[in-house]
Amino acid sequence: MKTKFVISLCLLIIQLCGYTQTEKNYKISGTVTDRRYKTQLQFCNVQLVSNKGLVIETRTDKQGYYNFDSLVLDNTTIIIKATKKGYFNNNDSREIKFPSVANDTIIDLCLDRIPIIRDFVFDFYFSYNSIIPDSNFQKHLSNVIEMLDYKKDVSVMIIAFKDSAETLDLRKERATLVYNEFIKRGIKKKRLKIEVSNKTNVYTRGEYTLDDKTNEYIFPEITETYIQNAPKEEQEVLRQRNRSVLLKYFKTEKE
User: What is the pTM of this model?
Assistant: First the structure.
């Protein structure tokens, strides 16, 4: 009887040891970097959220380094993201499925700084003869909303252009669509203005010359003649620039 008890106890210990050996402990570490300046960002909040309800937060150190240690994550999907005041918080998050990665996993994240204020930002591009924006619309809109929430003294001029190859003039409808999206997201009407431009979208970065007298950059008008003279592989890109709504920042007028 005593022998049976000892054998049963040994089998139980073996089973427990086997269970312990199959349970992996994961370490996730990395850096958070300013995407433009390539500098590592200190004191960022880094959050790990799993599909099983686990939520853990830490902060980067003075070297921009973060670390999550001793994590039990088998058969788990996590999302990890970084946030910092003065930076867009929705532009870099990672989804990882375990156990498909190594026990010691490095995940480096990048954040984009919210601009203090600059003349021109995102272009919203549209399909041919359509008011349907491209797939980046919501992401870019969210970034602009975040910047406007952060800088209350900045307003937006919504400028619409037309592709000369289009048979419909949808400038006003496209600008109005962007305007209404801002309103839906809580931006006040007094911070928004609409302009239907009769010119081409010369503000998007592209070919330019430098004026020797004024020392300013001169961008070419993207006319139909200019497009036709461009290489065929570039013509659609040029048309897309005019098939757009562009945002120009300006200071909000005080009441």
Answer: 0.59
